[in-house]
Automatic annotation (TrEMBL):
This is LUD domain-containing protein. SUPFAM superfamilies: NagB/RpiA/CoA transferase-like. It comes from the Bacteria. Residues 36-193 form the LUD domain. It holds the Pfam family LUD_dom. InterPro entries: FTHF_cligase-like_sf, LUD_dom, NagB/RpiA_transferase-like.
């Protein structure tokens, strides 16, 4: 037994009274129009959120938002305009320089424009190596705050990687000049369906 285990064992043996965790009741902000709020905050953090237009397919929306994209990576069956299924590559280096990666968002948070996602690709570097990320997210999966978001995260997640992304990667560490894409995608966009 190491010293940490010895200390913890001693604490367990000598704590006589167990106190329940306090119940937290905080009224959180609610947004009347979640879609408008989410779109506004996405713009504020340097990203963008678009809505699927009437009669438009997901492929048509991708071409509308990214008309210049030549290399599009996606493994979702509903996205047929993809030029590469990223699960067919062996190393992350083969994904370098992709114009666009299309991902599935699990839910979005209106207060900060964040998208929660879980790894859907074999190479988790894809979320950071692409020039642009496009998350497809149902409008019904918008929550008001992170207080609502956290309980929705599955603790039984079996993948290796998950997280929140809000806007493009950015830093101002070097000479206090804002640089986008230093640690990930230069552009982060959400398509609300």
């Amino acid at each position: 037994m190491n010293s940490k285990d010895t200390i913890l064992q001693s604490l367990r043996e000598n704590i006589l009274e167990v106190f329940p965790k306090p119940e937290i009741r905080i009224s959180h902000m609610r947004f009347e129009n979640k879609v408008d709020q989410f779109k506004e905050i996405c713009r504020g953090v340097g990203g963008e959120a678009y809505e699927l237009q009437d009669g438009e397919t997901i492929d048509e929306a991708i071409k509308r938002i990214y008309p210049e994209a030549k290399s599009i990576a996606c493994n979702m069956p509903e996205v047929t305009c993809a030029t590469l299924n990223p699960d067919n590559v062996n190393t992350p280096a083969e994904l370098n320089g992709m114009d666009l990666v299309v991902c599935r968002g699990i839910f979005g948070v209106c207060e900060n424009g964040a998208i929660y996602y879980e790894q859907q690709y074999k190479q988790r570097a894809i979320y950071f190596i692409a020039e642009s990320l496009l998350f497809i997210l149902p409008k019904s999966e918008l929550v008001d705050t992170m207080h609502e978001a956290m309980p929705r995260i599955s603790h039984k997640f079996e993948g290796e990687f998950r997280g929140f992304i809000s806007g493009p990667s950015k830093t101002a560490d070097i000479e206090q000049a804002l640089v986008k894409g230093a640690h990930g995608a230069k552009e982060s966009v959400v398509l609300l369906i």
